[in-house]
UniProtKB/TrEMBL annotation:
The lineage of its organism: Bacteria, Pseudomonadati, Nitrospirota, Nitrospiria, Nitrospirales. InterPro entries: CBS_dom (IPR000644), CBS_dom_sf (IPR046342), Mg_transptr_MgtE_intracell_dom (IPR006668), MgtE_N_sf (IPR038076), MgtE_transporter (IPR006669), PRC-brl_dom (IPR027275). Residues 358-414 form the CBS domain. The keyword Zinc-finger does not apply. Transmembrane segments: none annotated. PROSITE patterns: CBS. The keyword rRNA processing does not apply. Keywords: CBS domain. This is Magnesium transporter MgtE. Pfam families: CBS, MgtE_N, PRC.
Length: 420
């Protein structure tokens, strides 16, 4: 049991290892990590002497702490070490690598590794992602703590237990925080997208593929266009179609418009015909027009319907719509004739008809109106949503306030949809 208590990896790196006679065998450069029963074990340490690497089995160590390390091995029988890619090495593969902090929804760096003695083994129990780890690496942890204490600034321990770590990719060359599926689904898509954008492309793709279909669809819309294309290109058509089908038609159209035409048709041919037709309809419009900005998911009911009937329809139909601001009303030949707020819908007499409570002074757009006209209309009348109608005054779609926010982004941040 050479290790009693705890040490940090930085406290033993570059330290000499002595044999039983006190002869210096070399300096520690790395340690080999293997899967243990509950936590990873330190299997062996790698030392360097005269530019040659040797491997010392942990069981050969007789004393192992931050002050002195000794072994039963001698200089004459030190086994050489050849670096293997399949080995998981603490310095090479873990130290300074990025991991995902699920609580902070951000990517952090491994500054140090905490090791403890347990059942005769040295086990990896936590990673240090805080300032203490950095100061410890430079050998000034105590001085830094003392200096900050003068200003009454605490120097907290910022450790993440190894229980929450797992390989991010099949090969054990990088790590990420373990995130149960139910925890991932509770994270905001923008946070998931930020994490994916913060790691390498390979790691980001691996992270994305772990998401359920609903979370993947919401996260995909938050990613940069080039990242979206790379992710869609890396998955089979059926899975890509499942994700696209889960998205709102306007978001799906934005993403598919950047794909090669044959790939877009492959995906559209795999999803439900009705969804494919809705997306194809949006792809016919230039993105910087009302037709390109609109979403074709909205609630439209006949003016002859009663409030009670409409509430019944609403409870069923709104399940598949992300946000509902108003109920729209159609008259003869399905022309748009009115709009009703949800407040008016639920506070009026259920026996009244929609025609009795609707507002008839409707502000609307034509599909060919450009984005400047759209933004000016929304700003002038303080609208949260505005319908798009054709020449016959039939409703084609709806532009909501979040679509306008996208329009207000600087040109470099906008996505330009290719018309197909």
């Amino acid at each position: 049991m050479p290790l009693v208590g705890e040490i940090f990896l930085s406290e033993i790196l570059k330290k000499p290892v002595f044999d039983q006679k006190g002869e210096d065998l070399g300096r520690i450069r790395d340690v080999v990590v293997v899967k243990g029963i509950s936590l990873p074990d330190l299997e062996s340490i790698i030392i360097e002497r005269k530019k040659t690497y040797y491997c010392l089995d942990y069981k050969s160590l007789t004393v192992f702490n931050k002050r002195i390390i000794t072994t039963t091995q001698t200089k004459d029988n030190l086994p050489h070490y050849e670096r293997y890619e399949q080995d998981l090495l603490a310095v090479r593969d873990i130290l300074d690598k990025q991991v995902v902090d699920i609580n902070g929804a951000k990517v952090v760096r491994v500054n140090d590794i905490k090791i403890e003695g347990y059942n005769g083994n040295a086990v990896f129990v936590a990673i240090d992602i805080g300032m203490r780890g950095i100061l410890r690496r430079f050998g000034i942890e105590k001085k830094g703590e003392k200096f900050l204490r003068l200003f009454r600034i605490p120097l907290p321990y910022n450790l993440i237990r190894w229980d929450y770590l797992q390989p991010l990719s099949p090969r054990l060359t990088s790590i990420s925080l373990t995130m149960p599926q139910q925890m991932l689904s509770k994270m905001h898509p923008a946070d998931l997208a930020e994490i994916i954008n913060s790691v390498s492309r390979e790691e980001g793709a691996s992270f994305f593929h772990r998401l359920d279909v609903e979370s993947a669809a919401e996260t995909l819309t938050e990613l940069q266009p080039e990242t979206q294309l790379e992710i869609l290109a890396s998955m089979d058509t059926e899975k890509a179609a499942d994700i696209i089908e889960e998205m709102s038609p306007d978001d799906a159209a934005d993403i598919l418009s950047d794909l090669p035409a044959n790939r877009t048709q492959e995906i559209l041919g795999t999803i439900e015909p009705e969804d494919a037709d809705n997306i194809a309809e949006l792809l016919c419009h230039e993105q910087d027009t009302a037709g390109g900005l609109m979403n074709i998911e909205y609630l439209l009911y006949p003016e002859s319907a009663t409030i009670a009937e409409t509430i019944g329809y609403f409870r069923e139909d709104s399940k598949d719509i992300d946000t509902v601001y108003h109920i729209y009303v159609s008259g003869e030949q399905d022309r748009l004739v009115g709009v009703i707020t949800l407040k008016d819908l639920f506070l009026n007499d259920p026996e009244l008809k929609l025609s009795d409570i609707m507002e008839t002074n409707i502000k609307s757009l034509r599909p060919e109106d450009d984005e400047d006209v759209v933004a000016a209309m929304v700003s002038k009348y303080n609208l949260v949503a505005i319908p798009v109608v054709n020449d016959e005054q039939r409703m084609m779609g709806l532009i909501t306030v979040d679509d306008i926010i996208d329009q207000m982004l600087p040109p470099s941040a906008k996505r330009k949809r290719k018309k197909i």
